[in-house]
């Protein structure tokens, strides 16, 4: 009899640079960089940055040749021009209400991209894990800013893994919004599997991510979209995730896993309409850690993303992510440190949450144990499985 051995504790490169908070669209914009500062403060308050297997590090900003892995050189030049002049370039999505121009737009965006690219290099070379919660800016296109995103660090990280020699990379996006920019970057590339769970495009930006979007002619079945009905809560969200993601990763056999953990699925998020708890977000982060160990040799790069409940939700969600990646998960019932709560009040004039939980059970029923063809969530899962599972030799 062979005894089950727990997976080895893996190294974690945690990417942080104070200058990522210069990614600032100005007062009143939902993408408030305080959410990043408060996350790192909570990570430090729990001592996660001082664990023996954790290295906190920064990386240089992505240079033009790296940005060119995904972005048109003319677009990069336009970002610099608009940042310097303040004159909008609406054809490039720059200087819009979603993406206002600011002086450090190129430098801050390239810095965030540099952290994610370095994270990709770290997981490929070390076979370990990396986290850049400032990243996950998944809407930026090759030649256009979109949805608060200037440079697509997630797509750049995947492209760097391919450049380093990876033959199969999986990208799983659990942000409430469709990961459209990453999907578009690898639409016709059979080496990359993109999976996005998101609120249905009928009710949320960017109005893409239908189940029928399955990849280009040379990569059919490698774009996977699971649009969920508005109002979906923990049980449905977790049911959908487990009905689609583990089976596809097992079939695809990625050599590295890149994940995007937008916290805007949360019931308190002001810009979307799902009803997911912090506890379900933690369950999915833990599931993806296990799937990386099982199917990707432990190579796992985790990114942040959206999330606009900047004090109540984002710092707790991404601190759980860091703790899970470090192999030292935090107990949900654990209290948030008093010094961190004081910092939240000082920075935001809001009362900080008292515990690392929303008090939810975060349970679900397995889809393969039976489904209801009249249920809207089960209909969504079935549509996605029928669209892509046969391409991977799986039964819908």
Automatic annotation (TrEMBL):
<keyword id="KW-0006">Acetoin catabolism</keyword>
<dbReference type="InterPro" id="IPR023696">
    <property type="entry name" value="Ureohydrolase_dom_sf"/>
</dbReference>
<dbReference type="InterPro" id="IPR037138">
    <property type="entry name" value="His_deacetylse_dom_sf"/>
</dbReference>
<dbReference type="Pfam" id="PF00850">
    <property type="entry name" value="Hist_deacetyl"/>
</dbReference>
<protein>
    <recommendedName>
        <fullName>Acetoin utilization protein AcuC</fullName>
    </recommendedName>
</protein>
<dbReference type="InterPro" id="IPR023801">
    <property type="entry name" value="His_deacetylse_dom"/>
</dbReference>
<dbReference type="InterPro" id="IPR003085">
    <property type="entry name" value="AcuC"/>
</dbReference>
<comment type="pathway">
    <text>Ketone degradation; acetoin degradation.</text>
</comment>
<dbReference type="InterPro" id="IPR000286">
    <property type="entry name" value="HDACs"/>
</dbReference>
<feature type="domain" description="Histone deacetylase">
    <location>
        <begin position="29"/>
        <end position="323"/>
    </location>
</feature>
<comment type="similarity">
    <text>Belongs to the histone deacetylase family.</text>
</comment>
